[in-house]
Automatic annotation (TrEMBL):
Gene name in the database record: CEP1
Transmembrane segments: 37-56, 62-80, 92-115, 280-306
Keyword set, alphabetical order: Membrane, Transmembrane, Transmembrane helix
Name assigned to this protein: CEP1 protein
Superkingdom field: Eukaryota
Source species: Symbiodinium pilosum
Length: 324
């Protein structure tokens, strides 16, 4: 604490109250800045996380749509309240807060729907879908279009000598298929295919799923309508099956069924859930990092603008006094 000498009491130092007040004001301002930055970070991020969770994780249905809509409307309400406080003369920080919450209202639903389509839609379809057991590969696929899991009969095998991998120029992925056959039948009708991406070469080395396990006879159905992503993936597999039919002389049904080949279907469901939760956590953490960067940049820009405006006002005031 700075001090100045008293002219009458030379042995006593009197505190410099102006310096003390300046230090207190600086400490108060620093505390206020910390609070403002924290509000700019965590309020929009909380809205973002709530919307990501509401759009991504619940099972499909009316209640999940209602929850997602409610989270979005609540976030818009937060943005409106912040902007109204700014209009009533509160700190300009509230204007920035409204802007960041509005950005969250855009990013949150988009990220949540992305996770839902790529990860959670398949999980909920398999969890709530129909399981058929002792399915013979010679049975028409039309009878099992509502299936989520197919347990094939004991005579079922994959024909690994007649596989095909087709690389898509658009996605850069290789879509791999192998026919599911009944070793006791010589039929050239192929109703079911084991399928996956980036796990084979054009006509050999089909290593998708549990292909190497001789006891694996469970197919986790790849949905064709659960999401846009699923529909696009199914179309790629169907085109690969059509090319394979031309190469190997197969006969295809109108809608063959594509499955991921595994020994344990429950393990696949756990894997899908794990992937969805991990993706959700990663996106929420990425949102926090983005909120920190944007909030600090906006607050710094606002502080710089306010200081520059104060200097300009002081300059104009000094010029006005000089002219008068």
């Amino acid at each position: 604490m700075a001090a100045r000498a008293d002219p009458f009491l030379t042995d006593v130092e009197v505190p410099d109250y102006k310096a003390t007040a300046a230090m207190a004001e600086a400490a108060r301002r620093e505390h206020m800045v910390s609070q403002e930055v924290a509000v700019l970070i965590f309020t929009p991020w909380t809205c973002y996380v709530v919307m990501v969770l509401a759009f991504a994780l619940p099972p499909p249905g009316f209640l999940s749509s209602l929850l997602a809509g409610a989270s979005w409307i609540a976030s818009l309400f937060v943005a409106r309240q912040a902007y109204e406080r700014h209009l009533r003369g509160a700190s300009p920080v509230y204007k920035l807060l409204a802007l960041m919450v509005l950005l969250s209202c855009v990013a949150g639903p988009l990220v949540g729907m992305h996770i839902e389509q790529r990860e959670m839609a398949s999980y909920w379809m398999h969890k709530n879908g129909v399981t058929y057991r002792d399915v013979a590969p010679t049975k028409p696929s039309d009878a099992y279009q509502d299936a989520s899991i197919l347990d094939f009969s004991a005579s079922t095998r994959l024909d690994l000598q007649r596989t095909l991998g087709v690389r898509s120029p658009g996605t850069g992925m290789t879509y791999c298929i192998a026919p599911v056959i009944d070793v006791s039948s010589s039929s050239e009708h192929v109703n079911y295919f084991a399928a996956d991406v980036n796990c084979c070469e054009p006509r050999r080395s089909f290593l998708c799923g549990d292909t190497a396990k001789a006891s694996a006879r469970t197919g986790v159905v790849l949905p064709s309508k659960s999401s846009v992503h699923a529909a696009e993936r199914w179309d790629h597999f169907f085109k690969a099956a059509q090319q394979a039919a031309e190469v190997y002389g197969w006969q295809l049904p109108e809608r063959p069924i594509f499955v991921r080949w595994f020994q344990d279907a429950e393990g696949v469901q756990s894997e899908l859930l794990h992937q969805g939760l991990v993706e959700t956590f990663v996106q929420c953490f990425a949102g926090l990092c983005a909120a920190v960067i944007v909030a600090m940049w906006l607050h710094w820009s606002l502080s710089y603008y306010v200081q520059d405006k104060k200097h300009a006002d002081r300059g104009r005031a000094a010029a006005s006094r000089y002219t008068t």
